[in-house]
Amino acid sequence: MDIVQPAYMKSTFGLDIYYEHYPNEGKKTLILIHGLFSSTFSYRKLIPLLKQDFNLIAIDLPPFGQSEKSNTFIYSYRNMGKIIIELAGYLQIQHAILVGHSMGGQIALYAATERPDLFEKAVLLCSSGYLNKSKRSLVYSTYIPYFYLYLKRKLLKQGIMKNLTAVVHDHSIIDQEMVDGYLKPFSDDQIFRGIFRLIRHREGDLTSDVLKKMETPVLLIWGEEDRIVPIQIGERLHKDLPNSTLHALKKTGHLIPEENPVFVSDQIGHFSLS
């Protein structure tokens, strides 16, 4: 039960998808979905707290982490949601609870609307919401040869510390392991090529009209000091999702799985097992 089983699934899109499985027979299944510029690494503090009580799966969405970085895959939220559905089928899971952070929360919603019979509940951690499709001018820029390298250099010039201090409220928790873990994606040109394709293909977040029709129970957990996806987004999601509960944490920013893992794991446990 305590040993991770890292593996790959060949999706119907032709991509090798990396995932980690912490098997726990007879327990409910949680599928952990990370956000932009992240990977399974972002759940490193939650996994030890959850794996004793759940059959736990963490996935690297393409083009992030150890999953394949394709130059032909359509990086839409809907397609990423379908990969989550495929992984559940691949592992012969009949019912699961989705946990999504930031962009991963929106992908969890896409998967839940596609297969409400499969995903019985969802937990959204500082989830993205109400973002429109990328502006046409931005989409056009992604076709400029090697423009992805400009984006990479710009982000590297800002520095990983500046990026981390923007997503974490208490800067004292930033250590070398965190710096190394979140710096890793910035060394891979293929990730930036994939992000450019994501900018082209991202269809936008689910609308209020769609959210209001969802019957899936949803737990929303937010940091009141979130500067990336402000608490107002969580409040709006809570208003639109008819079967939702919202918890707001003081002195907590956007990287909520890192900043307050004990509270988050406790709330996931209560919500999932009730």
TrEMBL record:
**Which keywords accompany this UniProt record?**
Hydrolase
Hydrolase recorded as keyword: yes
Pfam families xrefs: Abhydrolase_1 (PF00561)
Q: What class of enzyme is it?
A: hydrolase
Q: What superkingdom does the record give?
A: Bacteria
Q: What is its EC number?
A: 3.7.1.17
List the molecular function annotations (GO) for this entry: 4,5-9,10-diseco-3-hydroxy-5,9,17-trioxoandrosta-1(10),2-diene-4-oate hydrolase activity
Family matches, as InterPro entries? AB_hydrolase_1, AB_hydrolase_fold, Epox_hydrolase-like
Is-annotated flag, keyword Nucleotide-binding?
Answer: no
Q: What is this protein called?
A: 4,5:9,10-diseco-3-hydroxy-5,9, 17-trioxoandrosta-1(10),2-diene-4-oate hydrolase
Q: Which organism is it from?
A: Bacillus safensis
